């Protein structure tokens, strides 16, 4: 949770609707611990103690998602939460379903999105 989203309500959107335009650098052990926790076996990682994993009741913290409306409709972008999103991705691969991602949705403009993507924002057709 960030300072921008701390007062926003937790929502859920399908993983398939979230664009992740920047390739992440991932810690596989952290992702494995998250998947295990989501599947009912709380597991500690470098950033989460066993006590915290047990207290989460199988839920991951919400991911901050940027929401932009354009001529094609509503689009969602994630620039953080890469390990959490990868854990949802693994759940999707094993279940064959499109999991609902717990998130906090931040209304965003094209100019704000450009702070993350630079001139590449023009390639998105927004």
Automatic annotation (TrEMBL):
Q: Which UniProt keywords apply?
A: Antioxidant, ATP-binding, Cytoplasm, Disulfide bond, Nucleotide-binding, Nucleus, Oxidoreductase
Q: What Gene Ontology terms describe what this protein does at the molecular function level?
A: ATP binding; sulfiredoxin activity
User: What Pfam families has UniProt attached to this entry?
Assistant: ParB_N
Q: Tell me the compartments it is located in.
A: Cytoplasm; Nucleus
Task: State where ATP binds.
Answer: 81-84
State the superkingdom: Eukaryota
What CDD domains does this protein map onto?
A: Srx (cd16395)
Residue ranges annotated for the ParB-like N-terminal domain, each copy included: 11-124
The similarity annotation says: Belongs to the sulfiredoxin family.
* Protein name as catalogued: Sulfiredoxin
From what organism does this protein derive?
Torulaspora delbrueckii
